[in-house]
């Protein structure tokens, strides 16, 4: 266990600027994301007095709803999903500034009505014409909205756009969207969300690497044998068949969350922590990623199986999924970053739905000691050093080292040095969306994806999916509750390695 030196009163309460007055407009306010993530995040920010002093939320969606009905629905969402206890006075303060606007996204008249409402809110709440627009809508709806918002810009207030994933469907559509946004807005007004960057443990990777002198000298091909990144989920598609059938694991997770984890693990130290410096370094990694050949990518789809003792249906049996669907729910790949730091060092990645448990980890496996002076039998139980970052759950990290087993003679075994967020810090971890919504209000884009990063990510995905057109694997090829198809294991066995023991 590692003890921290800190003032417990300040844990998790770093002194940050309060954002300037603004209205947050949520397009897609009747959707799941607003209820599960956005509103609970706003509540937690209100709970900690981190929201602007003059603030309002305007929900916009197609369904008919009054302001009061919207507030009531959001209140239930907060009660159900917020990480903090429900306090009436915190809720009242937030709810007082909440309004709702029924809006057909393709109809300009609706946008006029919204503009009128926003003016009214400005005068009631003192929000000074500053706007954050959150697009929790499908990419097809964004285009019209972007044009309408740009056409209605007025006064001195600032505008920021938060764009949810998926950002496009492939490189061409993402480029088109970037161009469209770029014609009307400056890059520093655009915040493309990848909520993994809002996770504390992902940011801690930057702290680990760049705030400690001991890791950087060994963070390279000379000392690292390989890296393994796992993004495993035990859940299925949760009623999102229409979306998932088109996206699959490669567009849902690999294109964004997974590649961002690769970029953060492999990037060079930025010269400062500004949005441009950090993103300049990440995009260099994405650009240096070697396109994997067909033998280096494995895809899978789950069949019927068991999760925690419960029988669950196969992907093709899920509601809304075609019984002959070729959509992948699992991807594993061997990636290489072609630069001096990483040449010939594989980064094995795997991600999937209906795997045995929810687990996101980054494992840095170091090379073996060059010449252990012990008898072979002494070190039989010894595995190579691994630095394991637990992104979630059980957030923290663990370093596997060899230690002498107490007693006569020399016998060495692997032990773990652990750091757990839960015991080192008193304050619970904020939800990713709290951090990201607040950062967007503050105009800080460091933890958002830049246009060029998104495009590099799509270029790699397009290359992989183009190769997939040529063959039809026999799906389903793994049972729910297992670690993917056997070919995922073979991918590492061929190199004389294996996935970390589960
Ligand atoms: C989303 C994906 O981006 O991330 C979902 O669309 C996935 O399919 C989710 O379940 C996982 O997020 P988290 O924070 O639970 O790891």
Question: Which properties best describe this structure?
Answer:
502 residues, alpha/beta, eight-stranded mixed β-sheet, six-stranded parallel β-sheet, 13 helices, 18 strands, 20% strand, disordered N terminus, binds 6-O-phosphono-beta-D-glucopyranose
Describe the overall structure.
It is a single chain. By secondary structure, this protein is an alpha/beta fold. It contains 13 helices and 18 strands. The protein has helices at 32-47, 67-81, 88-96, 108-125, 139-151, 171-184, 200-210, 241-266, 275-288, 421-424, 432-442, 451-468, 486-493, and strands at residues 22-27, 55-61, 98-102, 131-135, 159-163, 190-192, 224-232, 297-300, 302-303, 305-307, 310-312, 330-335, 347-352, 359-366, 386-392, 396-404, 412-420, 478-479. It has an 8-stranded mixed β-sheet, sandwiched between helices. Strands 3-2-1-4-5-6 form a 6-stranded parallel β-sheet, sandwiched between helices. The protein has a two-stranded parallel ribbon with strand order 9-18. A hairpin with a 3-residue loop joins β15 and β16 (396-404). α1 packs across α2 (67-81) and α5 runs parallel beside α6 (171-184). It is globular, with a radius of gyration of 24 Å. Mean pLDDT is 93; it is low at 1-13. It binds 6-O-phosphono-beta-D-glucopyranose.
């Amino acid at each position: 266990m590692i003890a921290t030196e800190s003032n417990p009163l300040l844990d998790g309460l770093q002194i940050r600027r309060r954002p300037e007055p603004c209205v947050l407009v949520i397009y897609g306010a009747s959707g799941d994301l607003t209820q599960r993530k956005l509103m609970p995040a706003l509540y937690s920010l209100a709970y900690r007095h981190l929201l602007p002093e003059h603030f309002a939320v305007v929900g916009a969606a197609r369904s008919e709803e009054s302001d009061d009905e919207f507030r009531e629905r959001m209140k239930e969402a907060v009660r159900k999903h917020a990480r903090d206890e429900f306090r009436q006075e915190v809720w009242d303060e937030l709810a007082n500034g909440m309004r709702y606007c029924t809006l057909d996204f393709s109809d300009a008249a609706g946008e006029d009505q919204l503009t009128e409402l926003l003016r009214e809110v400005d005068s009631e709440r003192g929000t000074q014409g500053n706007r954050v627009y959150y697009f929790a809508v499908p990419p097809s709806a964004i285009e019209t909205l972007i044009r309408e918002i740009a056409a209605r810009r007025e006064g001195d207030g600032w505008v920021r756009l938060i764009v949810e994933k998926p950002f496009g469907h492939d490189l061409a559509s993402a480029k088109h969207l970037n161009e469209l946004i770029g014609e009307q807005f400056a890059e520093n007004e655009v915040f493309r969300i990848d909520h993994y960057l809002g996770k504390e443990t992902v940011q801690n990777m930057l702290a680990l690497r760049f705030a400690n002198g001991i890791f950087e000298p060994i963070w390279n091909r000379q000392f690292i044998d390989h890296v393994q990144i796992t993004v495993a989920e035990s859940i299925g598609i949760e009623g999102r068949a229409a979306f998932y059938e088109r996206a699959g694991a490669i567009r849902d997770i690999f294109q964004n969350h997974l590649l961002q984890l690769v970029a953060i693990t492999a990037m060079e130290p930025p010269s400062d922590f500004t949005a441009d410096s950090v993103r300049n370094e990440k995009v260099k990694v994405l650009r240096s990623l070697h396109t994997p050949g067909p033998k280096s990518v494995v895809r899978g789809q789950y069949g019927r199986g068991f999760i925690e003792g419960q029988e669950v249906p196969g992907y093709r049996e899920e509601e809304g999924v075609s019984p002959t669907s070729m959509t992948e729910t699992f991807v594993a790949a061997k990636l290489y970053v072609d630069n001096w730091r990483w040449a010939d060092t594989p980064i094995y990645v795997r991600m999937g739905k209906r795997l045995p448990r929810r687990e996101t980890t980054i494992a840095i496996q170091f090379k073996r000691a060059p010449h252990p002076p012990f008898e072979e039998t002494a070190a039989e139980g010894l595995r190579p050093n691994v630095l394991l970052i637990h992104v979630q759950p059980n957030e923290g990290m663990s370093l596997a080292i060899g230690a002498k087993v107490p007693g006569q003679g020399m016998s060495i075994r692997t032990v773990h040095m652990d750091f757990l967020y839960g015991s080192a810090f008193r304050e619970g971890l904020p939800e990713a969306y709290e951090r990201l919504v607040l950062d967007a209000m503050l105009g800080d884009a460091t933890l958002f994806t830049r246009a060029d990063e998104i495009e590099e990510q799509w270029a790699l995905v397009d290359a992989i999916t183009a190769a997939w057109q040529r063959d039809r694997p026999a799906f389903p090829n793994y049972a729910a509750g297992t670690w993917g198809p056997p070919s995922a294991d073979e991918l590492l066995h061929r190199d004389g390695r294996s996935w970390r023991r589960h």
